[in-house]
Write a structure and sequence with these properties.
By secondary structure, the chain is of the alpha/beta class. It has 20 helices and 15 strands. Helix 3 packs across helix 10. The longest helix has 19 residues. The chain binds pyridoxal-5'-phosphate.
């Protein structure tokens, strides 16, 4: 089998065109020309392949779906071991269980049974293990630097804690994460985990992390790597649960739709990939909170930057959707130079206008809608009343939009449940008048010791800290 190669969405714009193997794309994260890696071609699954996978346990299905993407980065037995270990860390035997709801032929795909109770665990639990295996075999080490406002940081730390070949510096804004989110990070005492509270905002943290990467000498000296949502390996791991849910609902013999609460377009882009590979997906619905740049694009054909407004679904509070560039690459007929120019203009002017043909093409797959905080609370209350389910505010945004943009009611619509309600107890209480039960994974969180460093919002201080901490 010839392995899939990965190309940058801005290929040809600066560097000579690169065609990377899976492990190279995984280690690099972002391409050096500023683009994102995408597979040069999509592997495709026939209807017979899909039928033969019905009923497979999650980890076995995951191996089938991902093997064409990893190529020869791992031998078959090693890859199977990594995948099984990643999904053994989930509390639910089905990993991502699918629940039928008693309204509108809706289904809930629960992606929150991992160690930190949010969907990011699905990809990061595997990514941590793949990095460690790849680096360990080569006798190399790498250092992860990231910035978080909450969820991403805890999932990344849970994914790499205790690994031999990777250490992590996770920056969070001091005093600006919820206590549960902070404790999910700072109570991890593994020696390869370095929590750094920055005296500043989340944007300051992001700027510091970016500055580390932009200093190429520093980047190379520390072998910096990023595990944020633009890393191709994360998208790949997320494709699996679309296929898993589709098969349960009758694919490939029946179509299925998905509604995805999204900010950075990472999760829903994996649904687009599943469709490109042969899963019969009828429509993919983008569910936005008040930070609705994606929904505005689907309505008007233009992306326009706006300031971030804080909402009840903070993991979707973004200004620009980084993974959207992967869809734009296809909308630009995979012309990396044209897309690089468009992205440069977008950064300079704050606006990017698509052509009518591009918009039509996007609309042939995607629908979109938005709800504000009031609509989110209302959706949580309605879901509780009509289905008995307690939804977290992110999932509630998906539920609300799924009902608004239902389409053909004969086609099952799967709402992706991206966080456990116990991560957002205040919003849940406001919506339904009671606090969600704390799952076992969180009950002793408040009794555990914490470890964290405080640092000024100063790149020199961060560099010194990293230079003096040995890997
Ligand atoms: C990160 C996150 C999202 C948004 O994911 P995207 O990759 O931006 O689509 C939604 N819900 C929760 C709970 C998250 O943590």
């Amino acid at each position: 089998m010839s392995s899939i190669r990965y190309i940058s969405t801005r290929q040809g714009s600066r560097e000579p065109v690169e065609r990377l193997a899976f492990q190279e794309a995984m280690l690099a994260g972002l391409a050096r020309d500023g683009g994102l890696y995408v597979p040069e071609t999509w592997p495709s699954f026939s209807a017979d392949d899909l039928r033969s996978w019905r009923g497979l346990p999650y980890a076995d299905l995951a191996v089938k779906v991902m093997t064409p993407f990893v190529g020869d980065a791992f031998d078959a037995a090693t890859f199977q071991r990594l995948v099984r270990a990643a999904y053994a860390s989930f509390e639910h035997a089905e990993v991502t269980p699918l629940k039928a709801l008693p309204v509108d032929n809706l289904h809930l795909l629960e992606l929150f049974h991992g160690p930190t109770l949010a969907f990011k665990d699905v990809a990061l639990q595997l990514l941590g293990r793949m990095l460690d295996e790849t680096l360990g075999r080569a006798g190399r080490k790498a250092r992860i630097v990231g910035a978080t406002s909450g969820d991403t940081g805890s999932a990344a730390i849970a994914a790499v804690r205790g690994l031999k070949s990777v250490d992590i510096f996770m920056l969070h804004p001091h005093g600006r994460t919820s206590e549960v989110q902070r404790r999910q990070m700072t109570t991890v005492l593994a020696p390869n985990v370095h929590n750094v509270a920055i005296d500043g905002t989340f944007d300051d943290c992001q700027d510091l992390a970016k500055a580390c990467f932009n200093d190429l000498a520093f980047r190379d000296r520390h072998r910096l790597t990023a595990v944020n949502s633009i890393n191709w390996a994360r998208v790949m791991a997320q494709i699996v649960y679309y296929v898993y849910a589709g098969l349960k609902l009758g694919a490939p013999d029946r179509p299925v739709s998905f509604c995805v609460p999204t900010g950075n377009f990472g999760n829903i882009y994996a649904g687009y990939a599943a469709r490109a590979m042969g899963l019969p997906v009828d429509r993919l619905v983008i569910a936005s909170n008040g930070n609705d740049i994606l929904t505005r694009f689907m309505e008007t054909g233009a992306q326009t930057m706006a300031g971030v407004v804080p909402t009840l679904s903070p993991s979707m509070d973004i200004q620009v959707s980084s993974n959207f560039e992967r869809l734009l690459f296809d909308l630009h007929e995979r012309d990396g130079r044209a897309l690089a120019r468009a992205m440069t203009d977008f950064r300079a002017t704050g606006t990017m206008k698509g052509t009518a043909a591009q918009l039509m093409r996007a609309r042939s797959v995607f629908a979109a809608g938005r709800v504000d905080d009031e609509g989110t609370l209302k959706a949580m209350a309605e879901a509780y009343r009509d289905t008995g389910e307690i939804l977290d505010p992110h999932t509630a945004v998906g539920y609300a939009i799924a009902r608004q943009r239902r389409g053909d009611p004969a086609i099952p619509m799967v709402v992706l449940a991206t966080a456990h309600p116990a991560k957002f107890p205040d919003a849940v209480e406001r919506a339904i008048g009671r606090r969600p039960d704390l799952p076992d994974r969180l009950t002793d969180l408040f009794g555990r010791p914490e470890r964290c460093m405080m640092l000024d919002n100063d790149i020199g201080a961060l560099r010194d800290l990293m230079d003096t901490t040995s890997a």
